Amino acid sequence: LQPDILVIFCTFCIPALMHMKFRPKKIIYYCIESVVQYGTADVWLNIKYGHLFDVVIYPERNRAAKDAERCLLMDKPSVVMLNCVNSLSAPEPILPANQRNGRILSQGSIGYKLTFAQYFLDPNVAHSPVDMYGPISGADDLKVRMSELTGNVQYKGIVDGKELANLRRHYSWGIVTWNPVNENGLYACSNKLFEYIASGVPAITAPHPQHVQIIKRFGCGIVMPEWSMDSFLWSLGEASRIAKSERYPEYVEACQRAVKEELNFERQFERFLAVYEGRKLTA
Questions:
Q1: How far is CA 133 from CA 113, 136, 159, 224, 275, in A?
Q2: What gap in Å lies between CA 79 and CA 135, rounded to an integer?
Q3: What number is the average pLDDT over the span 269-275?
């Protein structure tokens, strides 16, 4: 094809550069996943072919600092682009705060080690209004236990993105937490956080650095004090109290303000374009 611009997504695509007989004008490396999670071979690939990258994109600043250092990419022009929803494929219109269903949405991967599925199955959580959508991974007993949920906490199965976007807008809160056992989990830059906010659904999040920064800046959610079960229970209770109070519409408005000011694809792409064109980044 001999493109002017070649975009390499993730370490897994770097081997394509081994066979490249044509040098595009620009090669953009989108380091969407933490390199270290794959092992030393992947770090080596980044070091070996990093000289070909003209611009490097990271989704989270802590990942950027660590991967740039370990992969010897510190001298490369780089930018952090948040995983925002593209307005060209925007979710359904935001529902007013007083038209929400009073329930909490958990969307995405479900697993014991990955996303604390055991918390949702704990008897102390049984009274909380939680609906879970997404693929179940790991132990076989988890699928059985999820299918047996018949109380206020329910597993709703898997739906496509369009249907999920339509369902999401009816929820009062969206919850997101990843187990911080590795860099990928600690420095989460989760799609679901940005999807919640784009749908006008305030987020309940574990204290992942990027999530904390966004919630504190815009006031569009609740941050769990830590990743423990006690923190999880506290956040569910706090969310329920806020949803029933006069404060709740402020959280919905904060989501809209966050999307308008920063959490939109156009704003993030402008950040990239400034680096790509050699211009100075604006705040």
A1: 17, 9, 7, 21, 38
A2: 32
A3: 93
Give residue 151's pLDDT band: very low, low, confident or very high (50, 70, 90): confident
Sequence-distant (6+) residues with CB within 8 A of 276 are: 26, 28, 55, 77
pLDDT digits (tens, 9 = 90+) for 219-246: 999 999 999 999 999 999 999 999 999 9
Q: Are 106 and 164 in contact (CB under 8 A)?
A: no
Q: How far apart are CA 219 and CA 214, in angstroms?
A: 8
Instruction: For 258-267, write each residue's pLDDT tens digit.
Output: 999 999 999 9
What pLDDT shows up at residue 58? 96
Amino acid identity for residue 210 in this structure: Q
Ramachandran quadrant class, 182 (left: phi over 0; alpha: psi -120 to 50; beta: rest): beta
Distance CA 238, CA 226 (A): 15
Which residue is listed with tokens 């830059």? Answer: 189
Closest C-alpha to 85, from 246, 243, 201: 201
Residue 91 has pLDDT above 90, yes or no: no
Distance between CA 38 and CA 40 in Å, rounded? 7
Q: Which token pair is 111? A: 């697993």
Nearest to 176 by CA among 87, 108, 86: 108
Task: Establish how many alpha carbons lie within 13 A of residue 281's alpha carbon, considering only the half-sphere containing its beta carbon.
Answer: 13
